[in-house]
Design brief:
With 121 residues, this protein is mainly beta. 3% of the residues lie in helices and 45% in strands. The chain has a single domain, classed as Jelly Rolls.
Length: 121
C-alpha cells in the first residue's frame, strides 16, 4: 500500500545562517537509506562549508538562485527552473548570495547522512 508522508522532519543544517531542511523521505523521516528527498529554504547570504559526499545529489531550484563552487574555484549559478547534479566524491560548496535566498529540492542517492557528507572543518 502507498505510504503517505503527511509532513517532513526538520533536520539541522550547517552553514553561516539558519537554513531550513525538510526531509520527506530519507534516513530521518522514513528510515529509507537508499534515497533522501528534501525541500531546502536558505536565506540570503547563506554559505555552507565545502563537502565531498559519498552520494550523488540532484538539486532542482524552485525559487531564487543557488551558487555552487567547485574544487578548482570555478562557480556555477543555478536559477529557478534549473537543476544541477553533483556526483559522489566531487567537492562542492553551496551558497545563496542573492537577496531573495533560495528554495530548492535535493534528492540524494543513497540517502544523505551526517557521516556520508564529509564537510570541511
Amino acid at each position: 500500500m502507498p505510504q503517505l508522508i503527511s509532513e517532513p522532519a526538520v533536520v539541522a543544517a550547517a552553514g553561516t545562517k539558519p537554513k531550513r531542511i525538510e526531509e520527506f523521505v530519507g534516513n530521518v523521516r522514513t528510515g529509507t537509506p537508499s534515497v533522501s528527498i528534501a525541500r531546502m529554504a536558505s536565506p540570503p547570504g547563506w554559505l555552507e562549508p565545502g563537502q565531498r559526499p559519498d552520494f550523488d545529489e540532484y538539486t532542482l531550484v524552485l525559487r531564487g538562485r543557488l551558487h555552487l563552487e567547485s574544487e578548482d574555484g570555478s562557480g556555477l549559478d543555478v536559477q529557478a527552473g534549473q537543476a544541477v547534479i553533483v556526483r559522489a566524491g566531487e567537492w562542492v560548496r553551496y551558497s545563496t548570495p542573492e537577496p531573495e535566498g533560495a528554495e530548492y529540492v535535493a534528492v540524494c542517492l543513497p540517502a544523505f547522512s551526517p557521516a556520508s557528507v564529509h564537510r570541511d572543518p
